[in-house]
Amino acid sequence: MLPAETAHGVTLGLLKAGLVPSQKPVQDPVLASRHWGLDFPNPLGLAAGFDKNGEVPDIMLGLGFGFTEFGSVTPRPQPGNPKPRLFRLAQDRAVINRMGFNNHGLDAAVGRLAARERKGIVGANLGKNKDSEDAASDYVKGVEKLGPLADYLVINVSSPNTPGLRALQGRAPLEALIGRTKEAVSKLLAPKPLLLKIAPDLTPEDRADIAEVALSSGLDGLIVSNTTIERPASLRSAEATQGGGLSGEPLFEPSTRLLGEMYKLTGGKIVLIGVGGIGSGEQAYAKIRAGASLLQLYSALVYGGPPLITRINRDLAAFLKRDGFSSIAAAVGADHR
Ligand SMILES: Cc1cc2nc3c(=O)[nH]c(=O)nc-3n(C[C@H](O)[C@H](O)[C@H](O)COP(=O)(O)O)c2cc1C
What global pTM score does this model have? Predict the structure, then answer.
């Protein structure tokens, strides 16, 4: 009943006030996996953009997520785009956002993360300021400040709402960007896994280039994918013409197709996090079979609420067992074999 961004603010307020009851996580060994030396109790994570400022990571873990990612955080605080900038497409079980990296900046995030009671795996999603001339130096700052506090780091070059950002996915700029960011990671006292989050709207050439660069530069993973600037003809909601990135159910098919392609292009040699339109255990299972080792969601929470998290995990465990898989790892990429 509230405007979308107001509802989001109220939700964060309720979470921070402890008014959203925690949920017993699904504890099933079939859902457990280990990546980068980290033990994931289940593969379902919270995607970036819900907790832009790292205010509620442990509370979200308490709702049953296997891990959570906060951000995108930019070096300096910035207000983002003018409101309204967040829209529900209820008939399509989708969301359009053009937030534009509204966030409190790195120092505020550092303060919060340093004070947290570590309840599980938390990743930091790094962005660049809108008015920054040197993108790589923004990501380097993110690594330097949040690297010591996060369990993994994400270079986000795939938001459609920061002008020029997605051009960083081209081969030459990407190589330079990953090179500088990796160097900063290697200087951390305890180096952390470095991942890249990509857009669903890439040309075949971009996709092949990203796969090659990911492997040659020693990236630890790819997150596939961010929101799309495409508008499928099937959309029925009045807000479908809003500018920005589309997420939720209509993103499931294209983001899963891209996931499968990136799995083939990288030969299964690198961890893929599948995100885009997951709203059921069946869809979570389909992402794993397409090549994802880990999963994330955001938009489905708008429509399904917290109970969705345990439901997806429970159903996913049932699908794995039905098909004779003893672990997530055994099912990753099964569609390609
Ligand atoms: C309101 C909103 C804000 C988002 N902000 C970010 C962000 O700051 N950084 C980022 O990497 N992705 C961001 N995303 C993208 C999500 O992390 C995710 O990749 C995308 O929504 C697809 O997943 P979903 O269909 O489950 O929502 C945002 C998504 C939404 C809906």
Answer: 0.98
